[in-house]
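In response to reviewer comment 3 from the previous cycle, which asked for concrete evidence that the modeling workflow produces usable outputs, we include below a single protein chain processed end to end. The sequence was submitted unchanged, and the resulting structure tokens are shown without manual editing.
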Amino acid sequence: SDDWCRTEPTQGGLEFLFAQGDGTCGQCFCCSRAIRSKVALFGLDTRVSDPHLSLMGVPGRLANNIGAGRQWAGWITKTEALLERLKSLASTEPERIAIYSDTDV
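The workflow returned the following structure tokens.
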């Protein structure tokens, strides 16, 4: 119901928003989308092509590998890749929190 949707509930891996027919999903009044973490995790390793990196000490958690497909050009590589990704994230999801974890352990 609309009253239920106004409470902004989550259910079955989805979060709901009462959009009053002005949602991104069309003319619906109660839009749903997959629950996303409010925290974006990043790491950088240019030696691997995998877009995700395992976080040491946190089993099952992955970080986005912003070094996948990049050539290592010294330490500036980390700064440039992170700045590029943060600018992109800020333009599309300004409320998200970003955490960068160095992979050199």
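The beta strands are 10-11, 14-18, 30-34, 39-43, 52-54, 62-65, 97-100. We consider this sufficient to address the reviewer's concern, and the full set will be provided in the supplementary archive.
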